[in-house]
Design goal:
The structure holds 2 protein chains of 2 kinds.
Chain A lengths: L3 E4 L2 E5 L4 E7 L4 E9 L5 E8 L4 E4 L2 E6 L4 E6 L8 E9 L5 E3 L3 E6 L1
Parallel strand pairs in A: 2-11
Antiparallel strand pairs in A: 1-3, 3-8, 4-5, 4-9, 6-7, 7-8, 9-10, 9-11
Chain B lengths: L4 E3 L2 E4 L5 E6 L6 E7 L6 E7 L2 E4 L8 E4 L6 E5 L8 E8 L7 E3 L3 E5 L1
Chain lengths: 112, 114
């Protein structure tokens, strides 16, 4: 059974720092991996999608990498801002494409 | 609409009551997912539709939970005889095609069973 783990569970940084969020998964037979952001009381906002054949994706200050063979992904946030404060969720799509399996998330707090 | 729409946004149900939660996916999206998210946890998979076909319902926690998508667009998640442990946010997501397409989520329905 696929399990997704996110470390750390919580992170507090001052504004301007670069930071890395980690995601690991136990079964490398995935279709893709997607990073989401969730603000309190809100739904999930898609940040980046990496297909299983890709190594990384970039969007603005965000860069996500994927090492499928080792079952790891990282989300790099450059020059963090208070508006980046949220919970970040990693999810892998099973090979059949029928489910996204989520980690429990990393709650990020960026102080000004 | 432009995004995935869920209704109602909030629902309070008395224990034992039946509830129905609605999801309007992005127009033309083939795949539709339902998730349950408890407070402080990641979303847990409930069920998956490809058009009107329910291809995976392995995450439904009991036979009190039932989902349908009769015409391949709008979906309804029904919970019969609600219990306190059903209190959670129920999220719906859709993606354009089966497999590797990006998934987009709605705002969720917060269900509180009292």
């Amino acid at each position: 059974k696929q399990e997704v783990t996110q470390i750390p569970a919580a992170l507090s940084v001052p504004e301007g720092e670069n930071l890395v969020l980690n995601c690991s998964f136990t079964d490398s037979a995935i279709y893709n991996l997607q990073w989401f952001r969730q603000d309190p009381g809100k739904g999930l906002t898609s940040l980046l999608l990496i297909q299983s054949s890709q190594r990384e994706q970039t969007s603005g200050r965000l860069n996500a990498s994927l090492d499928k063979s080792s079952g790891r992904s990282t989300l790099y946030i450059a020059a963090s801002q208070p508006g980046d404060s949220a919970t970040y969720l990693c999810a892998v799509r099973n090979q059949a494409g029928t489910a996204l399996i989520f980690g429990k998330g990393t709650t990020l707090s960026v102080s000004s | 609409g432009a995004g995935v729409s869920q209704s109602p946004r909030y629902k309070v149900a008395k224990r034992g009551q039946d509830v129905a939660l609605r999801c309007d996916p992005i127009s033309g999206h083939v795949s539709l997912f339902w998730y349950q998210q408890a407070l402080g946890q990641g979303p847990e998979f409930l069920t998956y539709f490809q058009n009107e076909a329910q291809l995976d319902k392995s995450g439904l926690p009991s036979d009190r939970f039932f989902a349908e998508r009769p015409e391949g667009s709008v979906s309804t998640l029904k919970i019969q005889r609600t219990q306190q442990e059903d209190s959670a946010v129920y999220l719906c997501a859709s993606s354009l095609y089966t497999g590797g397409a990006e998934a987009f989520f709605g705002q969720g329905t917060r269900l509180t069973v009292v």
